[in-house]
Specification:
Elements lengths: L1 H15 L1 H11 L5 H33 L3 H20 L11 H8 L5 H10 L2 H13 L4 H23 L1 H40 L2
Helix pairs in contact: 1-7, 1-8, 2-8, 2-9, 3-6, 3-7, 3-8, 4-7, 4-9
């Protein structure tokens, strides 16, 4: 149980990447007061957390309806996470971890950026959705493990909320270079986790 909780926390923390979200959050709230930033960060995290919990519990039924087995999703999700990890290691941005140019233009005309683009796709992006479904698959049949997973997810979002609220201070303290260094370290960890997902999926698919 402890090993599962640690694996789940590391996976979700690396995927959500609280420190890596700071530059985006600060850029999207340039004229907001500290109180306004707190409200935006709280709403964004609540929406993202709710989305991940719902997808985590309902995702299995969605896959069944599409005729997709968990081993296939584990392999596909692992490949997706591997691509995400490569981007993190090289400090590159794409639609996997950030908004596209078209989404940036749309966000610029929004008064409320909490739901889009902060909650989705910045916090609860494709990588986070794939991760929560894979972890929920590992906890299948155990209500205790599922409860632990939800608690771990809550802890990750508490950390993400606190990091966003302190975003301007963190950015001033370590700068974009420091954030990129941490993101690269997270990317290396995520690479190993992604490969393990692919290996586990292949073993389940081929009965190894």
């Amino acid at each position: 149980m402890t090993e599962f909780a640690i694996t789940a926390f590391v996976t979700l923390f690396v995927i959500v990447d609280p420190v890596g979200n700071v530059p985006f959050f600060v850029a999207l709230t340039p004229h907001a007061t500290a109180e306004e930033r707190m409200r935006i960060a709280l709403r964004a995290n609540l929406v993202a957390a709710a989305l991940l919990v719902i997808f985590g519990f309902a995702g299995h039924w969605i896959l069944q309806g599409l005729g997709i087995g968990l081993p296939a999703f584990r392999i596909g999700g692992g490949i997706l996470l591997l691509l995400l990890a490569i981007e993190m290691v090289f400090a590159r941005q794409s639609g996997l971890r950030a908004t596209t140019s078209g989404e940036d233009e749309e966000a610029a005309h929004r008064l409320d950026v909490a739901v889009f683009p902060l909650a989705v796709p910045l916090i609860a992006g494709p990588g986070a959705l794939a991760s929560i479904l894979l972890l929920m698959g590992d906890a299948a049949g155990s209500l205790v493990q599922r409860g632990v997973l939800v608690a771990v997810l809550g802890a990750v979002f508490v950390a993400n909320f606190a990091t966003l609220v302190l975003g301007t201070r963190i950015l001033a303290r370590i700068g974009v270079t420091g954030i990129n260094v941490l993101t690269r370290v997270f990317g290396v960890v995520l690479t190993a986790l992604a490969v393990q997902f692919v290996i586990d999926g292949a073993k389940a698919a081929f009965g190894a």
